[in-house]
Amino acid sequence: MAIVAPHVRKHLSADALFRLVHSGFARLPEHRLDDTEISLTDALMAAFAMFSLKAPSLLAFAKERAAGNVHTIYGIARVPCDTYMRTILDPVSPKVFRPVFTSVFRQLQRGKALEPMVFLDGHYLLALEGTEYFSSQTIHCASCLHKVHRNGAITYFHQLLGAAIIHPDRREVIPLMPEPIMKHDGTDKNDCERNAAKRFVAKLRQDHPHLKFIVTEDRLSSNAPHIETLHAHGLHYILGVKEGDHAYLFQQVQVAEHAGRVTSSERHDRAAGVVHRFRFVNDVPLNASNVDVRVNFIEYWEISDTKVQHFSWVTDLRVSTRNVFHLMRGGRARWKIENETFNTLKNQGYHFEHTYGHGEQYLSVVFAMLMMLAFLVDQAQQLCCALFRAVWTKLGSKRMLWERMRALFYDYALTSMRQLFEALLYGFQKSSPLVTIDST
Ligand SMILES: [Zn+2]
Fold first, then answer.
1. Cα of 383 to ligand 1 centre, how many Å?
2. 113: helix, strand or coil
3. How many angstroms is it from 358 CA to the middle of ligand 1?
4. pLDDT tens, 147-188?
């Protein structure tokens, strides 16, 4: 008797998305004039496959059977050795990856896969946050940022501004192409998160002129120039604030409180044993030097028997007793970029901080971009593919899932990623399941 397998959405399956990434790479211009024994597409796809399989290195690909799977599953004609791969990828400017990220995003849009990620009135919640993924006293490249210490020692480091569509009710996050925080061609000046955010927002609008976003960030972003940048690009926001950093704002809230303009409300969640307490006021100045930058302010306490958690935000969305709870959940969901994105990349098999090679020009940044792209494809699976979720549930953890996935990949000749996931779910011995395919 046939088993009815979990639903697979044809255009959003791992196999379809790998093909999409491959065709995106194939469109990138070849920067080498000679020595093209291995194509740029193969070198990029090999690095992508390494992150997709969470392989600690490329060496395992050299095995005969795995080389076959590298061809059938990832479409790679010839796998470069790791030294050669680094040589090919080092001069590739990271900005070339934008259309590849966008094409995966468009595929998700076309498949209506992003609908469950809508947060409020057709708007997506977009979390932005900077993170450092490399630091060294000795290894460095032309793109490294640097910091000179008092004793003359230099620390070299790499950061990026990560961006991901998040939702308070969903574990999945949909990363967009990160903005590298790096030294740019021919300059010796350090870049910074604020400049990266400016570039990011402008490119976001070029890529998605009509998409509605509510940007959520930590308290470092709650400054007038950044709020003006968001406003100029038609982006709403929910940004953290802290009394220590925003004393004037908190004083103005006190003034409004005395004038009777502040609204307080409470919601009791008896099942969870917590009280949600709010106070909010609309239309207050952000700070003394930018009194014309007006914001709406929310302060929130989550009170349980054992502890009280306290948060505050500013937003351009008008706050009411009707929406304050939902806006609070949007503000609190920001941690998902820290937890579900960066921590996943660091601790769930992606080796975000591990050095696959640094290079002299862009290699370190190129690897970070390709890792984020592999993470995007994985998150698309988690969001859309019941087969992937069934395997994950069966194996109990991502770490186990990646481990078993690699073991099969290296040991069996496979025709597709779907075959690999089905083998993980049903075993090779069982009868082939009937797979229901949704061709939307
Ligand atoms: Zn570097």
1. 33
2. coil
3. 6
4. 999 999 999 999 999 999 999 999 999 999 999 999 987 677
**Cα of 143 from ligand 1 centre, angstroms:** 5
Q: Which two tokens stand for residue 5?
A: 């397998």
The rounded Å distance from CA 362 to ligand 1 centre is 7
pLDDT tops 90 at residue 352: no
Burial 368-384 (b: 16+ CB within 10 A, else e): bbbbbbbbbbbbbbbbb
CB 128 within 8 A of CB 215: yes
What is the CA(346)–ligand 1 centre distance, in A?
A: 18
Asked whether 159 and 132 are in contact (CB, 8 A), the reply is yes
**Residue pLDDT, tens place only, 37-69:** 899 999 999 999 999 998 877 666 666 667 789
Give the DSSP H/E element, type plus range, for residue 128.
strand 123-136
**How many whole angstroms from 65 Cα to the centroid of ligand 1?**
35
Ligand 1 center to residue 356 CA distance, Å? 12
Which letter does DSSP use for residue 316 in this model? S
Going from the Cα of 160 to the center of ligand 1, the distance in angstroms, rounded, reads 12
290-326 pLDDT per residue, tens:
889 999 999 999 999 999 999 999 999 999 999 999 9
The distance from CA 340 to its chain's CA centroid, rounded to whole angstroms, is 9
